[in-house]
Specification:
Blueprint: E1 2-7, H1 14-31, E2 35-45, E3 48-57, E4 62-69, H2 72-98, E5 107-115, E6 133-144, H3 146-156, E7 160-165, E8 171-176, E9 182-185
Parallel strand pairs: 1-2, 6-7
Antiparallel strand pairs: 2-3, 3-4, 5-6, 7-8, 8-9
Helix pairs in contact: 1-2, 2-3
Length: 187
């Protein structure tokens, strides 16, 4: 498994990198036999250290966790504990969804845009109705079942997931509603 361990405005020593590989590797070996790579980013927010980890599984799913603590090793331990808890909760679902899948999740490319925020305090009419595009990026849209899409969204901690429905071959959306339930848009 490949590890990418970085720090935002802080130095990451060799001892911490070894600790990350040991702790995260042990948690992943318990619940996931096929991780491909992990990205771990350490940063400092006021007096706390923040550890964010994203693990890509060969099945195409991503698991993400975030930990906060006043010490950097404790932040890593909190992050690994959350990752361990997520993978433990979804182990049965991962097995059920992927036991018949012989190949990784298929995905296709799409354009992703970031639009400029409209200032609510400005009551005047905008000059044009065209939105201002701040950034344009390439993104991947996975081909999943609805259950896999919900699981992927929850594992990644994302509020919304756009995916291609395997059964209907159309683009669908799952999202977390304000009432805590999951919404599914199937045009």
């Amino acid at each position: 498994m490949r590890y990418q361990i970085t720090g935002k405005h802080i130095d990451i020593g060799e001892a911490l990198q070894t600790h990350v590989q040991n702790e995260l590797g042990a948690a992943l070996d318990k619940y996931s036999q096929r991780p491909t790579d992990a990205t771990v980013v350490f940063s400092k927010s006021a007096h706390e250290y923040v550890c964010e980890a994203v693990v890509h599984l060969s099945s195409g799913l991503n698991a993400a966790a975030k930990g906060h603590a006043t010490e950097i090793y404790a932040a890593l331990d909190a992050c690994v504990e959350k990752m361990d808890k997520q993978l433990r909760r979804y182990k049965r679902r991962l097995k059920d969804h992927h036991k018949d899948r012989t190949e990784p999740v298929e995905s296709f490319g799409a354009s992703s845009y970031i639009l400029a925020h409209h200032d609510e305090g400005n009551e005047s009419e905008p000059e044009t109705l065209q939105p201002i595009i701040v950034a344009e990026m390439e993104t991947k849209i996975p081909s999943l079942s609805v259950g896999e899409a919900v699981m992927q969204m929850e594992l990644a901690g994302a509020p919304v997931l756009v995916f291609r429905n395997e059964k209907k071959d159309g683009v669908n959306v799952v999202y977390r509603r304000e009432d805590g339930n999951i919404g599914w848009i199937d045009p």
